[in-house]
Predict the structure.
Amino acid sequence: MQDAYLLWVCYVVLFFLATFCALSLPLYPTSATAKVAAEGTWQVVFVVFLAYAMMPLKSYVAAVFGFLLCGSHLAMSSVSATEFQDLKWQQV
């Protein structure tokens, strides 16, 4: 594989990793029993590790990807965590 294609393959892999994290966001129907903001955290940590350590990307690309992914998970979990309101900031 040529080096020119390797970067595009990395971007496609980043897209699929971001999709994996988007599917694991803590979005629950109203009838769900366990609504904890920490759901999906291990997926985000694993994907950020893959972006930083296992892919030949530039540092700023991996950093922007990590900040966007963590920020979106933090925002979504702070909005969707409706149970245990007094412990919400400890969960987030």
